[in-house]
């Protein structure tokens, strides 16, 4: 924490099930933070919604909590930047009020519409224009077509289709604007020309008048509306700035702002970002390419299986750890990782495949599932816990290898997310990937990245690169240990062999349990 005098920059991170507000000084020191959770509405398996007012009400509550924290001088607050979940769609009336609940990015109802759009557009053209290897029900293009077909009255009443960052910018300033890092995965925005894609808009039955204006990340949109400033208790002079996709903000928050920088965010999933000077595509369409939160910069960005396997293990088999955690005040995850630390590298021959809900990039295999191979009577719970940590490191290495095949140099890995708190896990990652793994002092990279963009929009910094140099503070560097690298080379080879060997089994299981 910091009580340093000077302007304060607020980073707002709009997550899937929670939002966080954090105030930073200009040197990147955290002054205070507040987190609020909200419930997802899931009436059926494929439907995931949230009422937009829920987001706003929790944001208002978080801001008030933040202002009550010691060291926060409300008069010092100068700007707000936003880190936002991607693909969450909020249709609104002409006066900006929502026509229906937000359709959250996890929502998968638009399967038929997704298939129809996939048939309509050539795969190569689709990738060239959007940077996304394939059409999915997740993308807002499919969701808009679903609304046109299934909720025609509400579709007709919708004046604008907004993403969650756009909605907040309107609530805060009265302006309808959006930016490229969030627009990339809508699949109706051309990520090279930075203009709407006319052919896709025609397929969806909408025109540009029903979409926001396009600006760059880190741009001042306007001052707080007077009534909003009064409601939130913030200075009316507070400048509201465009931010970026949450993973782009996270990358910025650990300094992944220039070519050659690579970051991984280990949470329920592993999100990987490799910064590029220009838009690039993977000839094998394994890697999506996104517009970055740094203007005129791009990134290979993908999700893949991550810490959800550890959460599953904690929930299903971690009664002891949860019990100890409840009376000791410690985190059950930390206790599981401590157990894993008692086991030697390689987990004594135990290899785990972590794809509980399918494999994402670069395998892109929806039928993939989890597996434990090599189990014998010597193995216990701690072996399984260690094998889980190693399996996620193998996933990171697999993606690093694909990026290297595409000609990228990855000299180091910058780590963020919950997994970055574990020194053991980051050391395993360094040993498996044979690269230094760096962590930062700031506990939340996404809010810091949003604050950095707010600082740029405010004019306190010339660029996100300059701001990151000033504000991102490196904490630890985990160097690869030569004695472990050779063993992990062998174990990683077995991991890949195991996955390939099990693919026919995964396909058979999918058919049996379809």
What labels would you give this structure?
514 residues; alpha/beta; 7-stranded mixed sheet; 18 helices; globular
List the helices and strands and how they pair.
Blueprint: E1 8-14, E2 18-24, E3 30-37, E4 49-50, H1 52-67, E5 77-84, E6 89-92, E7 102-103, H2 111-120, H3 123-130, H4 140-150, H5 152-157, E8 160-163, H6 164-173, E9 177-179, H7 180-183, E10 189-190, E11 195-196, H8 198-204, E12 213-215, E13 220-223, H9 226-232, E14 239-241, E15 244-245, H10 246-253, E16 262-266, E17 269-276, E18 289-291, E19 298-305, H11 308-317, H12 319-328, H13 332-340, E20 351-354, E21 370-373, H14 381-405, E22 413-416, H15 423-433, E23 437-440, H16 445-458, H17 464-471, E24 474-478, H18 482-512
Parallel strand pairs: 1-5, 5-14, 5-15, 9-12, 16-22, 22-23
Antiparallel strand pairs: 1-2, 2-3, 4-7, 6-8, 10-11, 13-14, 16-17, 17-19, 18-19, 20-21, 23-24
Descriptive notes:
With 514 residues, this protein is α/β, with parallel strands linked by helices. Helices cover 40% and strands 21% of the residues. The protein is built from 18 helices and 24 strands. Strand 1 (8-14) and strand 2 (18-24) form a beta hairpin. The N and C termini lie far apart (52 Å).
């Amino acid at each position: 924490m910091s009580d340093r005098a000077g302007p304060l920059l607020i980073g707002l991170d709009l997550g899937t099930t929670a939002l966080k507000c954090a105030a930073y000084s200009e040197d990147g020191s955290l002054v205070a933070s507040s987190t609020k959770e909200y419930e997802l509405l899931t009436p059926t398996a494929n439907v995931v919604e949230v009422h937009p007012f829920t987001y706003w009400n929790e944001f208002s509550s978080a801001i008030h909590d933040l202002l009550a924290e010691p060291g926060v001088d409300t008069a010092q607050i100068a700007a707000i930047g936003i880190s936002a979940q991607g693909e969450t769609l909020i249709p609104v009336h002409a006066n900006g009020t929502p026509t229906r609940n937000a359709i959250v990015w996890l929502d998968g109802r638009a399967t038929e519409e997704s298939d129809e759009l996939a048939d309509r557009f050539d795969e190569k053209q689709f990738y060239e224009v959007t940077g996304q290897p394939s059409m999915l029900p997740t993308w807002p293009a499919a969701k808009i077509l679903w609304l046109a077909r299934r909720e025609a009255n509400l579709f007709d009443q919708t004046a604008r289709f907004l993403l969650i960052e756009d909605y907040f910018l309107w609530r805060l300033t009265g302006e309808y604007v959006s930016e490229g890092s969030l627009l990339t995965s809508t699949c109706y925005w051309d990520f090279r020309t930075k203009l709407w894609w006319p052919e896709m808009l025609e397929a969806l039955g909408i025109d540009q008048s029903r979409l926001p204006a396009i600006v760059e990340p880190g741009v001042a949109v306007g001052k707080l509306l007077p009534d909003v400033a009064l409601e939130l208790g913030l200075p009316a002079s507070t400048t509201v700035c465009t931010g970026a996709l949450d993973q782009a903000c996270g990358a910025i928050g650990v300094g992944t702002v220039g070519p050659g920088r690579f970051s991984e965010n280990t949470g329920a999933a592993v999100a990987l970002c490799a910064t590029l000077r220009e838009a690039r595509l993977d000839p094998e369409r394994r890697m999506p390419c996104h517009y970055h939160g740094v203007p005129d910069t791009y990134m290979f960005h993908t999700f893949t299986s991550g810490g959800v396997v550890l959460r599953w293990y904690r929930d299903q088999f971690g009664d002891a750890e949860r019990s100890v955690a409840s009376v000791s005040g410690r985190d059950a995850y930390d206790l599981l990782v401590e157990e894993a630390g008692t086991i030697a590298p390689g987990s004594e021959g135990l290899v785990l495949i972590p794809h509980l809900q399918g494999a994402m990039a670069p395998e892109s295999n929806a039928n993939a599932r989890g597996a434990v191979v090599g189990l014998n009577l010597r193995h216990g719970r701690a072996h399984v816990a260690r094998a889980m940590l190693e399996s996620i490191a193998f996933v990171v290495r697999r993606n690093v290898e694909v990026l290297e095949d595409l000609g990228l140099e990855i000299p180091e890995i910058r780590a963020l997310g919950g997994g970055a708190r574990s020194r053991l896990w980051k050391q395993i990652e360094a040993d498996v990937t044979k690269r230094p793994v760096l962590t930062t002092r700031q506990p939340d990279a996404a809010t810091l990245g949003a604050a950095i963009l707010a600082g740029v929009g405010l004019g306190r910094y010339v660029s996100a690169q300059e701001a990151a140099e000033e504000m991102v503070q490196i904490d630890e560097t985990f160097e690869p240990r030569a004695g472990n690298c050779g063993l992990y080379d062998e174990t990683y080879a077995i991991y890949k062999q195991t996955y390939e060997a099990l693919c026919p089994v995964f396909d058979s299981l999918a058919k049996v349990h379809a």
